[in-house]
Write a structure and sequence with these properties.
2 helices; alpha+beta; 41% helix
């Protein structure tokens, strides 16, 4: 994780409490990259989501 990722992680609201998931969300937000997941909670962070169930 880069400094940018850590900054995003520290600024995230606590919609999702899983630390690994929060790290993925922070990296996705910092890099403006979509995240592949089936977890609907990720969308609450305003990041681009690719639904893995489809």
């Amino acid at each position: 994780m880069s400094d940018r990722h850590w900054s995003k992680l520290q600024a995230l609201p606590f919609h999702h409490r899983n630390p690994f998931d929060r790290m993925l969300i922070a990296q996705s937000a910092a890099e403006a990259m979509p995240l592949l997941t089936s977890d609907a909670e990720f969308a609450r962070y305003g990041i681009a989501i690719l639904d893995s169930t489809q």
